[in-house]
Amino acid sequence: MHNRLQYTSDSKPAFHETLRLAPSTGDRTACQPGNVATPMKTVFFRDGILLRSILVTILAFCLVGVLTVAYTMQSARAQAEAASRERVEQLLDTVQRTLQVAGFVKDRELAREVAEGLLSNPVVLRVTISENGNLLVDLVRQGLLLSGERQAGDMVRAIHSPFVDGEIIGEIRLTPDPDVIEHHIRDEIIDRTWQLVWQLALISGVMVVTLLAFVIHPISTISRELHQMNPTAGDRLKIPPGHAKTEIGRLVTDVNALAADLVRTLDEEHALRLQQELDEQKYHAIFDNAESGIFLIGRNGRVASWNPALARLLGIARADEFAGELILLDLPWSEPTAIAMLIEKVFVTGESAKRDLMLQRPDRTHFWLNIMLTPVGGDLLQGVAHDVSALKEAEAEAKRQAMTDPLTGLANRASLEHLLGARIRQHHQQTNPSFTLLHVDLDNFRQITEGIGVPAGDAILRMVAARLGAQVKGNDTLARLSGDIFAIVLQNLSNDETIGKVVDRLMLSLRQPYLLEGSPIQLTASIGITLFPHDATDAPSLLRNAELACDKAKNAGGNQSAFFAPNLAEAAEQRRHLENDLRQAVDRGQFELYCQPIADLSSRRVTGAEGLIRWRHPERGLVPPDRFIPIAEQTGLINEIGLWVIETACRQLAGWRAAGISCYLSVNVSGRQIPGGLPPAAIAEAMQRHGVSPDSLVLEITEGVLLNNIGEAQAWLQAIKQLGLRVYLDDFGTGYSSLSYLKRFPLDTLKIDRSFIQDMQPGNSECSLVEAIVAMARSLGLKVVAEGVETTEQLGMLARMGCHHAQGYLLARPLPPAEFPEALREIDCRLTQT
Q: What is the rounded average pLDDT of the residues 106-131?
């Protein structure tokens, strides 16, 4: 290939020598530089334009002369004949009167004299005069003998009477002498011919001189300069003087432009040849030094050429050292037909194609090659081969990581879903029996992690994975779905009793203490159970059913298992519809804020109320909060609902103030609203907008708010207290009821849960417990509100214990805002009578 593209700097002048132009395209040798010295005279006389122009001009003038002479002779003859006739007519005019007299008197002598006078003219050959058919005289020039016949050229004129106008009395006939006339014609023709010849010769000479001076000489000069011109050295033709705007000047300009174009074209060709040589050198450098294997291959799989990189990849000799033929199809591919199919595909489609193929090295190890084939014409393909073994290993590792839980090393959700799909397909192919899916959820693991820290929680999860793995068989599958949720696929197991034993064994193993740094930690788990294909026949439904069954077990208190039942799916579907409706409830104004009165036991009057949200569904009717608040907390809608409650409560307080009702209104705050869902700034803005004083709005929180994130809860409560608002701790006694929380957080009032008040009897434990809570709150400077008061006995015991406030059905059920003022007066009246 190098030999075909060899090019040296000496070749440029050789190309440019071809620009030395010859005067005639027929003489190719004149183009060569060695012929420039040919004598110009030889060229001038042999091939010059001057000789040719003179010859052509002479020939043209000869032809024109012959045609002109012929025309002149014809014209001269006609003119001479006409002149002779005219002279005879003039002779007749001179003797007209004499003839009239001679004819009238029939005087032969007079007629004879007239005839002799006419014959004296050399043109007249014969005269005949007659009078009314009578011959008067018939004379012929002396010495001539004429026949009696009349000649075609005779001239006849009538003789008129001298006295009577229009009367013809005779005629005269003249016969011209043809020899005399012919002699006159010949003399005329000779004179005119010589005159024409001199004129044509003079004109021809002038034209030849003019052509020589203004055309031949400039062109000859241009031709001479053109032979001596070297366009590559910048030589150009000069425009002859006086020809700047003539065709010769434009011709010189065009020749110079053509020479410039040719020089530029040759320069470009020279540059292209140099570039082609450089490109070929670069290609060979790339071809020889490329890290990728490059080769040319035919349809039959024979490799025509290859670079050293391909030789290294395949473990063969270099192309210039290889003995025999390299057939790509004969290499030890893991899929021998794949490379043949790839080659055929490129030839058929005419488009590039690539594929990853596994090949075995001589040392029996395997590696991956990415082979890309591109058609290059000539029934050949260009191939590029890359070693992608590392990439394949990385992809496999990434796939393993994508399908594996990094903490426990178990299968993750994606891996489990893939496994379930494979098991289901095998079942449909009658190659795999039924199986059981367990959904294992650790109870209260989040609270434990918050207490012991995330690293310790991860350690527990690894121990849980180890315990679960020890309890399942080798053909079973254990996976971690998320934080504290695991899944187990029990293969070939569908009997409820046997499943129950396996589940009991798993729960017993999980209940064993977990030792962390010598401290034991107790854990329990809730397990949901679903059967394939009894409960579902696809992976998503099985996972959902197991989760629903687990939720059932957790809602029942945890530390137990539950089988999936169809009603669980129905309840979940209803919950989903309820969630969809809940998203539209705020925008459609379907929420209402009911008010349940709170009485001051010392003054025996209603001093406040608790705002309780209700959802008036257009189809379901009045939906209680315990049905939709958990859904709102899980979906994040609780933040939007909480802002609506604050806005509505402030509007209600403003209405009460305008009506002269001096009661405070407390509203519940969910732990999901703290801190970002219900920012103190939003509460302050609502209060300012409606002109509500801080002492008329109360916020109620639960112990769960304090447990979620102590730092965030403290900061949020401090901001609320800075606004001047009071904070109630709701449902006190149902949670941890830690005294440290009461001391740490800025609380104003405790609300005793209704479960203590409903079972309170004089002297029983609930009564003692309530009395102790009231005493403790007083000692801490906190007030107490007893919830769930339904009898006058309960109200009396609370008053005697020193409880500050009471709330319950004894006073009133939650009321619509419009009914609250009337109920307020009725309740105050009843309280004063008890």
A: 84
Is the pLDDT higher at 12 or at 510? Answer: 510
Whether the pLDDT of residue 309 is over 60: the answer is yes
Q: What pLDDT band is residue 431 in, cutting at 50, 70 and 90? A: low
Give the closest residue to 317 by CA, choosing from 303, 334, 329, 338.
Answer: 303
**Residue 376: Cβ within 10 Å count:** 11
3-state secondary structure 759-806: CCCCCCHHHHHHHHHHHHHHHCCCEEEEECCCCHHHHHHHHHHCCCEE
pLDDT at 8: 35
- Number of neighbours of residue 206 by Cβ within 10 angstroms: 10
Residue 172: which region, alpha, beta or left (left: phi > 0; alpha: psi -120 to 50)?
A: beta
At 633-666, the pLDDT tens digits run 878 888 999 999 999 999 999 999 999 999 999 9
- Of the candidates 106, 203, 215, the one whose C-alpha atom is nearest the C-alpha of residue 161 is 106
- Please, which residues bridge with residue 134 across strands? 131
| Structure-token pair, residue 796 | 């009396």
Main-chain dihedrals φ then ψ at residue 778, nearest 5 degrees: -60, -40
Beta strand pairing call for 366-377 and 353-360: antiparallel
- pLDDT at position 573 over 80: no
Nearest CA-CA partner of 309 in 322, 290, 295, 296 = 290
Give pLDDT tens digits for 272-286.
888 777 777 666 666
432 against 615, higher pLDDT: 615
Half-sphere exposure of 713 (CA within 13 A, CB side): 21
Count the helix, strand and coil residues of the chain and give each as a percent rounded to the nearest 5: 55, 20, 25
Please tell me the distance from the alpha carbon of residue 649 to that of residue 660, in angstroms, as a whole number: 16
- Among candidate residues 334, 376, 332, the one with its CA nearest the CA of residue 355: 334
φ, ψ for residue 50 (rounded to 5)?
-65, -50
**Confidence class for position 555, pLDDT limits 50, 70, 90:** confident
Residue 318, both tokens? 């270099």
Amino acid at 136: L
498 against 5, higher pLDDT: 498
User: What is the DSSP pairing of strand 749-752 with strand 477-482?
Assistant: unpaired
Contact of 771 with 750, CB cutoff 8 Å = no
Of the pLDDT bands very low, low, confident and very high (cuts 50, 70, 90), residue 141 is confident
The number of beta carbons lying within 10 Å of the beta carbon of residue 694 is: 16
Full 3-state SS string of 542-568: HHHHHHHHHHHHHHCCCCCEEECCHHH
Q: How many residues does the chain have?
A: 834
Residue 45, Cβ density class (10 Å: 0-12 exposed, 13-18 middle, ≥19 buried): exposed
Q: For the chain, how long is the longest CA-to-CA vector?
A: 209
Check: pTM over 0.85? Answer yes or no.
no
Question: How many CB atoms sit inside 10 A of residue 540's CB?
Answer: 11
Q: Which residue has the higher pLDDT, 829 or 211?
A: 829
Hey, what's the torsion of the CAs at 95, 101, 106, 110, to 10 degrees?
Answer: -50
Cα–Cα distance, 606 to 623 (Å, whole number): 27
Separation CA 834–CA 828 (nearest Å) = 10
> Within a 10 A sphere around the Cβ of 431, how many other Cβ atoms?
8
Kindly report the average pLDDT of the chain as a whole number.
Answer: 82
At 443, give phi and psi (nearest 5°): -80, 135
Question: What whole-number distance in Å separates Cα of residue 530 and Cα of residue 378?
Answer: 65
Q: What is the DSSP letter of 216?
A: I
**E strand or H helix that includes residue 167:** none
pLDDT of residue 78: 80
Residue 291 and residue 289: Cα distance in Å, rounded?
Answer: 6
Q: Please tell me the distance from the alpha carbon of residue 675 to that of residue 496, in angstroms, as a whole number.
A: 47
What percentage of the chain exceeds 90 in pLDDT? Answer: 22
Q: Which of 98-112, 119-133, 732-746 has the least mean pLDDT?
A: 732-746
> How many separate helices (H) and strands (E) can be counted in the chain?
27, 26
